[in-house]
Amino acid sequence: SYVLTQPPSVSVAPGQTASLTCGGNNIGGKNVHWYQQRPGQAPVLVIYYDRDRPSGIPERFSGSNSGNTATLTISRVEAGDEADYYCQVWDNSSDHPVFGGGSKLTVL
Amino acid sequence: EVELVASGGGLVKPGGSLRLSCAVSGFSFSSYNMDWVRQAPGKGLEWVSSINGGSTFRFYADSVKGRFIISRDNAKNSLYLQMNSLRAEDTAVYYCASHGSGSYSPFDYWGQGTLVTVSS
User: Fold this and answer.
1) Is A85 touching B (CB cutoff 8 A)?
2) How far, in Å, CA of B2 to CA of A108, rounded?
3) Do B47 and A90 touch (CB under 8 A)?
């Protein structure tokens, strides 16, 4: 089955830019979705189809996808961005969705 | 306003059964594929099962195949998960979520989750 790899933790100072990566074999050929999960809450979709933002998600959130790495970029990071972030794709071979292991974003 | 409210979780002994429900409002339920996604304590997200709008297609993760059954009632805007032969490793918060009919669409709406604990 398809495997997505995310670094367990990413740290960034307020006001700086956070880059959260999601690795997978030729992930650039897939559609990647990103979810934010704050402690004790349900996940929230923040980026879909690699780079689109749902209504209500700040423009500070952006996405890219190429080669073997997809990236969620959060500009001008705020304390409220501290959360776990998960990437997700659909595994073509099984038609099942696959989640990455998640990255915990810490705002220093 | 879109709302998904999951219920039915609780404490159950290994080998026991439990039925989860998810009440949906605020969008055209019958047009959406629906899913269950779970999260074990301190762990990441794991997809469990999917069902399409007309209930003609149902998919399961290998970890639950043969034990869990997903169903829906479009007249009641409700999604269900019948969980049988429960194991300790099924302990998790279970989220109901929707994804559109488009190819490889995202999980756009999520419920708040219901906790299932399997323990003797």
Assistant:
1) no
2) 34
3) no
